[in-house]
Structure formats: C-alpha cells, structure tokens
Amino acid sequence: MEGRRASRAERTPLFESVGESLKREIAGGRFASADVLPGERELSEMLDVSRTTLRRAIAGLIDEGVLVHRHGAGTFVRRNPPHVEQPLSRLTSFTEDMRLRGLTASSRVIERGSSLPTPEESMMLDISLSETVFRLARLRLADGVPMAIERATVPLRFLGGTEPVVESLYAALEGSGFRPVRALQRLRAVVIGAAEAALLEIAEGSPALHIHRVAFLGDGRRVEFTRSFYRSDTYDFVAELTLSASARARSEGAAR
Ligand code: 16G
C-alpha cells in the first residue's frame, strides 16, 4: 500500500490523484443515487488512502466546484443546476414557474415570523409602522438545487391575520383572496457576499441578480415586498419588447 502511495507521489501529489479518482467515480455515477458522499472512513478505505490525503483531495474538489459542503449535512456531488428562462412579463410564483418546467420546487426556511415593519417595509408596502407584517425568508430550490434566496414581507391581514404554514406564498395569498395581480420589479446585477454564496452554493464574489418586487392587488393596495438574490448561472430573465402603437404606425407608414 505504502509502496503504491510513494510511487504515485513521485509523479503528482497523492491528494491530486485521489481527487482525480474521485472525479472519475462521480462521472461514472457512483454517488448519483444519494448525491451525498460516504463518510471519511468508508471513502478512505475505498480509495485506499489516509484520511488526511482524502481531506485534501475533497477540499480541492470543493474549490473546483465538483463537490459542495453543506454545513451539518455532509459533502455532496454538485449537480448541474437547471437552467430556467423566466419571462419578465408574467406574474407567477416560484412554485408555479418550476412546475411548468417539470422541476420540483422546494424551500428551506431561513427566517419566518410576524413583527412590525421596518421603515423600508412600511414605505414599500405603503402601510403604517404599527401594522403587523409577516416575514418569510427562504432558500428556493429546483430539483434540490439552490436557485434563489427570497425575503418576502406581506401585511399579515392579507393572510387572514394568522401566520400561514406555507409551501407557496402565492397559494396562501390566493387562499385568503389576496393574490397579487400586478407587480413592479427592479433587477440589478450584484456580486454575491459570503453568506448568500454559501446558501446558494456558489463561490463568494460570483455575479447574481438582486430583485426587488412590489406586488399589488387589483384595487392598488400593495400586498408583497420581496427582495431576492437569483443565481445568474441558472436564470435568464427574458423580456419581450414591442414598439408603441404610434411608433408602429409611423414605421408601417414609412414602409408603405
Ligand atoms: C417568485 C417571486 C416572489 C414571490 C414568489 C412566490 C420573483 C423574482 N419573485 O419567486 O416575489 O414571493 O414567487 O412563490 O419572481 P411561492 O408562491 O412559490 O412561494
């Protein structure tokens, strides 16, 4: 065993060849069923290397983006994220968007609860500082892959006055008769910080989209204020652009 280790070490560092063997195993679908890597002991026996070497190999693969470490859950094979084209003109929910694409939406709740609004929330929702709001911060996943972080704030009265047990916020709003019918959205490119990068399982400093959404009821009341970070490698926001009626008439006139 040691002989094998020594001869390999002469050419490339052992941890690098271990990393390459792990990559071959992953490419061959070895861990495809669970996606989570076996424990250190099992892996070091399987690859016939010391745990120290294994740890270095795994750290290298995490840096390369082949593996991802989820705190408290283990080390996982990074699956290719689904790629989603999202029209900017339709007011749909994340759950609906994913379902339409044959993907399964799920969420990891980061924070939820009711309290008084911050000055920003009270301004964006056009409510008084004494009106209770429901806050829901979630990591949104498609087929288990993190796609976005969404922090939604909704006046509690639009949810029937009680905190909902939600899988879909829009389904809960629909249930209480207050589903938004219109929204204003502002998109901005950002460089992702460490905390968000860890949740989205992308490298710190990656580009992302920061989105502000204010959604309205038919009567103009504001029902939702959401701030999100979307991974830029998984989402294309697509907008259809049309000429104004007068410009169209002018260009048709010119063509005649
Ligand atoms: C979308 C909306 C978000 C809304 C959520 C509801 C964008 C940028 N954001 O992700 O504002 O809160 O859908 O989804 O499109 P849910 O009904 O699945 O909870």
Strand order of the largest sheet: 4-5-6-9-8-7
Q: Globular, elongated, flat, extended or rod-shaped: what is the shape?
A: globular
Helix content: 25-40%
Quote the average pLDDT: 86
Main beta sheet, described?
A: 6 strands, antiparallel
Architecture overview:
By secondary structure, this protein is an alpha+beta fold. The protein is built from 9 helices and 10 strands. A 6-stranded antiparallel sheet has the order 4-5-6-9-8-7. Strand 1 and strand 2 form a beta hairpin. Helix 2 crosses helix 4. The longest helix has 14 residues. The radius of gyration is 24 Å and the shape is globular. The relative contact order is 0.11. The mean pLDDT is 86. The structure holds 2-acetamido-2-deoxy-6-O-phosphono-alpha-D-glucopyranose. 2-acetamido-2-deoxy-6-O-phosphono-alpha-D-glucopyranose binds next to helix 5, strand 6, helix 7, strand 8 and strand 9.
Quick structural overview:
By secondary structure, the protein is of the alpha+beta class.
Core attributes:
single chain; 256 residues; alpha+beta; six-stranded antiparallel sheet; two-stranded antiparallel sheet; 9 helices; 10 strands; binds 2-acetamido-2-deoxy-6-O-phosphono-alpha-D-glucopyranose
Itemize the secondary structure elements and their pairings.
Layout: H1 2-11, H2 14-27, H3 40-47, H4 51-64, E1 67-70, E2 74-77, E3 84-87, H5 94-100, E4 105-115, H6 119-125, E5 133-142, E6 145-155, H7 169-175, E7 182-191, H8 194-200, E8 207-216, E9 222-231, E10 235-238, H9 245-255
Parallel strand pairs: 3-10
Antiparallel strand pairs: 1-2, 4-5, 5-6, 6-9, 7-8, 8-9
Helix pairs in contact: 2-4
